[in-house]
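Anyone up for a design puzzle?
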């Protein structure tokens, strides 16, 4: 069997070219014409050289076919991307009232929680933007007394929570456009106890009833997820525990599950049916099983691979996994090019390629010819080590292949997966064997249910143990181009090893990958030598900003929420490492709310810190107490923020405009949901940074009352700023009209999380910014992290812009140097 899954076979190359064109079309629909034009030009050139009557042959034909695949992918991706961007659900804002009608994907029973998570399929959505059709929609429904069966029709009304993508980047797949929260049924009466559906729904329901009878209630949701791909009943704590242990892939039907079930079928049929028919029957049963559970992408890919393997075995033909993988990819992308955006698709194919290629590299390394002396003993030792080495290499290959994808989509990686995989996989295999037997009547079914219950409980305990290990999981920012380049070079080195080439050929790309990883953080700073950099990070629903002074010193203003607060967020520690920081000279904490201090504890443990500027207001926050204890333990100098406090680092002046408001002037309970939060927000430390003449104003979560107090206490000229961070994530209780009139910013940045439940930024704040004539408004929930370069004379520009803008503090409001993009 060919173990090198990525050998350049025609089908695999065609799939890769189609996927590359698809990615280009989805990302930039307007550029989709480039591959088509290139194809036409190449065809004309070849025809001119060979003559139109002779046609093409050899390398010319192969090249034309590959370019044609890329052109077809580009056109399909452009069409799909345009449809996704113009879909009506994309115009629905968070909080909009929406009616949805569809059919329940899974069975649902009443639980002890106040709400139930339900997935609807074939959804008809009705909102202010008109009717929409979605393949799937997650609905958080108020708990009801009845039972909702799979296939039951459901019509609900609730509030829309939008998942946004950055404009000009990847469009949002229709099934991931948003979800419905605070939903309630529109029909009278309780949920139906019996739902309609076809044979697949009835068969899945029969399996579900068998699991109800034979599997323990504490692990029953996990059993349904492993066998039936029904995960709505899985508690969030269980999902997080498996993710932290690097075992999240075990909860989704994937190639592992299909392979185990296929192996069980072949073993059961071995004494009853001869080989050719046995393989065909197993392939047919696996295909039917994948159809019954709803045909997830990973399961379809695995079923196609298993079907190809059984076909080759039944025919006695050599197996080419690369062709099977390419055919599976084309089968998924041709009908739905937007499938390329699905994290499950990316993780599935990357993980499979990593497993097979890693295993091939492990076999090659342990299977080298031994030295002459003691050859017999070494050969025997090599044979004994080959299997465990191949298993370890396969696990390492899967982790290396999927880690950057996990970091890009979910903001986390779990290195513990390298070890937990060896425990979790056998337990899942044993669990699946028992779950398959559970529906069988009699003692066999009871024995299967008991075995599955026991193995699933051990699986839960193992996941909890691995998740609690130090360093088991860690936050990770989206990979940069440098990281992706290093990843590609490392993959090339692994391919050289798997193909049996000399180790010296693998050493060159591997050395290049290591060099990029070591020097990568310094590369952005080389381009900005002598230039200060100020970045407002996209940390979700929270605040975090970092400043690198022109002398290379680092200032952190708030640390954002906890690293595990949600996926796809730019954590403070990964951001600092990506920017090349080795030490943080000053930390400014505006106030001790979790969305501002959540990431600071990890930062204090990851970097040497030169000082902390804080209000010192003792609030009942356990995380704040831990942070102060860590500051004391590490002997970090503490500076209490008071109005008029000044600090200077290189060419940067930091001025505190607002210390905590005296207690007798606080208006407790008028903002937020608790007195503690109201006190924290109304006593935010407001700082103004003057970086070589460029001014940046950060008010934290200061309310309009604190803004008014600052306006009374400071001259108007001292509040002028080029860049203003909107207070309290764009809440309507901050960023007043009087405040904007005094600051007169050239740019405002709003730090808010996509689809946050608070509705930030509020429409009233956006209207105030428009009425104040603010030229540019940057939202981290839509356009991600904002970085601003500042030269030694105070001129500034957003990262990527070509022209420099003059500071408003010297040249008047909104001055823009001629030739720059200007304000818009």
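Challenge accepted. My sequence:
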């Amino acid at each position: 069997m060919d173990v090198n899954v990525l050998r350049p076979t025609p089908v695999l190359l065609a799939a890769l070219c189609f996927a590359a064109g698809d990615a280009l079309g989805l990302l930039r629909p307007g550029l989709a014409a480039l591959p088509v034009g290139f194809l036409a030009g190449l065809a004309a050139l070849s025809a001119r050289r060979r003559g139109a009557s002779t046609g093409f042959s050899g390398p010319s034909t192969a090249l034309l076919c590959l370019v044609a695949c890329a052109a077809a992918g580009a056109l399909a991706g452009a069409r799909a991307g345009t449809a996704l961007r113009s879909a009506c659900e994309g115009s629905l804002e968070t909080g909009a009232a929406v009616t949805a009608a569809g059919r329940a994907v899974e069975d649902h029973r009443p639980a002890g929680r106040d709400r139930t998570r339900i997935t609807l399929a074939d959804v008809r959505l009705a909102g202010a933007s008109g009717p929409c059709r979605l393949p799937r929609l997650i609905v958080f429904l108020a708990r009801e007394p009845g039972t909702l069966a799979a296939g039951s029709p459901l019509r609900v009304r609730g509030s829309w929570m939008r998942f946004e993508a950055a404009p000009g980047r990847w469009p949002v797949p229709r099934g991931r456009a948003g979800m419905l929260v605070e939903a309630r049924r529109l029909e009278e009466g309780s949920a139906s106890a019996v739902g309609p559906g076809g044979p697949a729904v009835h068969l899945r329901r029969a399996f579900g009833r068998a699991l109800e009878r034979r599997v323990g209630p504490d692990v029953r949701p996990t059993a349904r997820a492993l066998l039936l791909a029904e995960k709505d009943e899985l508690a969030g704590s269980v999902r997080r525990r498996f993710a932290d242990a690097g075992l999240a892939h075990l909860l989704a039907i994937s190639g592992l599950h299909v392979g185990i079930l296929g192996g069980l079928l072949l073993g059961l049929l071995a004494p009853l049916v001869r080989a050719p028919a046995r393989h065909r029957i197993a392939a047919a049963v696996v295909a039917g099983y994948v159809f019954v559970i709803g045909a997830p992408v990973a399961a379809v890919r695995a079923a196609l691979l298993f079907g190809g393997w059984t076909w080759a075995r039944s025919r006695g033909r050599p197996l080419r996994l690369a062709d099977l993988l390419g055919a599976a990819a084309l089968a998924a992308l041709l009908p739905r090019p937007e499938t390329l955006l699905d994290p499950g698709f990316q993780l599935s194919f990357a993980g499979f390629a990593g497993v097979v290629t890693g295993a091939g590299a492990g076999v090659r390394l342990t299977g080298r010819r031994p030295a002459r002396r003691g050859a017999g003993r070494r050969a025997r030792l090599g044979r004994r080590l080959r299997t465990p080495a191949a298993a370890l290499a396969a696990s390492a290959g899967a982790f290396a292949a999927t880690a950057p994808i996990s970091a890009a989509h979910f903001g986390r990686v779990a290195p513990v997966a390298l070890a937990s995989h060896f425990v979790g996989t056998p337990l899942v295999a044993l669990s699946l064997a028992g779950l398959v037997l559970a529906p069988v009547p009699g003692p066999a079914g009871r024995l299967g249910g008991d075995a599955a219950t026991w193995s699933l409980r051990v699986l839960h305990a193992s996941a909890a143990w691995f998740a609690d290990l130090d360093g088991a999981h860690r936050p990770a920012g989206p990979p940069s181009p440098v990281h992706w380049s290093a990843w590609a070079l490392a993959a090339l080195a692994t391919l050289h090893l798997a193909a049996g080439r000399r180790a010296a050929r693998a050493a060159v790309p591997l050395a290049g990958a290591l060099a990029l990883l070591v020097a990568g953080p310094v590369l952005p700073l080389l381009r900005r030598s002598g230039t200060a950099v100020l970045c407002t990070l996209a940390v979700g629903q929270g605040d975090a900003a970092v400043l690198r002074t022109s002398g290379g010193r680092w200032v952190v203003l708030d640390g954002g929420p906890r690293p595990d607060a949600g996926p796809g967020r730019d954590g403070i520690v990964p951001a600092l490492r990506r920017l090349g920081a080795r030490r943080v000279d000053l930390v400014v904490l505006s106030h001790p709310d979790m969305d501002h201090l959540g990431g600071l504890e990890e930062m204090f443990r990851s970097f040497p810190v030169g000082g902390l500027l804080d209000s010192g207001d003792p609030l009942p926050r356990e995380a704040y107490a831990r942070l102060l204890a860590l500051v004391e333990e590490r002997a970090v100098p503490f500076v209490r923020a008071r109005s008029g406090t000044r600090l200077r680092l290189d060419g940067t002046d930091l001025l505190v405009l607002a210390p905590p408001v005296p207690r007798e002037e606080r208006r407790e309970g008028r903002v937020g949901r608790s007195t503690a939060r109201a006190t924290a927000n109304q006593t935010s430390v407001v700082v103004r940074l003057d970086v070589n003449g460029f001014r940046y104003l950060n008010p934290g979560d200061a309310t309009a009352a604190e803004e008014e107090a600052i306006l009374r206490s400071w001259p108007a000229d001292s509040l002028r700023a080029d860049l203003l961070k909107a207070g309290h994530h764009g809440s309507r209780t901050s960023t007043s009209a009087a405040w904007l009139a005094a600051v007169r910013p050239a740019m405002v940045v709003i730090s808010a999380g996509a689809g946050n439940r608070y509705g930030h930024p509020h429409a009233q704040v956006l209207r105030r910014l428009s009425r104040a004539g603010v030229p540019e408004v940057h939202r981290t929930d839509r356009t991600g992290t904002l970085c601003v370069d500042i030269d030694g004379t105070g001129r500034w520009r957003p990262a990527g812009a070509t022209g420099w803008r003059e500071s408003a503090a010297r040249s008047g409001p909104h001055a823009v140097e001629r030739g720059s993009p200007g304000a818009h």
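A detail worth pointing out: The longest helix spans residues 375-410.
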